Amino acid sequence: MTHPLRLGVNIDHVATVRNARGAGYPDPVRAALMAAAAGADGITAHLREDRRHITDDDIARLAAELTIPLNLEMAATDEMLAIALRHRPHAACIVPEKREERTTEGGIDAAGQYDRLAPLVDALREAGIRVSLFIEPDPRQIEAAIRLRAPVVELHTGQYAELDGAELDGEARTEELRRLSDAAALAAKNGIEVHAGHGLTYDNVGPVAAIPQVRELNIGHFLIGEALFLGLDESVRRMRAAMDAARG
What we know:
alpha/beta, 8 strands
């Protein structure tokens, strides 16, 4: 059975533009509400340890004002756990985080960090927060997610998205799609819901959206960039249409 494919819109970079001037606008909460009206099924926000874009106040307002699910991306730290437990978002996606990176680089090593992740996953799950692990499409990481009893994994699609135009129809792209498809199948076979995201655009989203086990795509930077030209409403609607066409 092929399930409907949900779209989660990440509004981090609305906050990036706001913070560039230290003003109160543009407001990421307003963007989240507009995305919801345009057809987003959920909103993702990454509260980084250095607060480079989303702030604590943004999370509080999103939790209070959204009528669709909030997915809080968070590092595996005690500070972020406490924030998640205070606001009780619908979901929390545990991601790797390095201060010097521009954006999240790769998936978290769930296998190598099992002992650190286990108590965080347990605490979030006990609080009724749906836990997701942002991981590479690798059997070892899927197996770690199974042992951690994480109900959701989000597969990192960055390597697929970064393939240049010369490779788009070539062997490298085919291999990366196979890795994503195999990982999705392995996770779903073991009762884990599969999400995917990072670097997806109108041009490359189709093959990932067509993987039948994938239930949700989380997309942010591209949609906010396109909103500069199309408006946020149209940016989200076009992605929704591209996903639906690929799902067929």
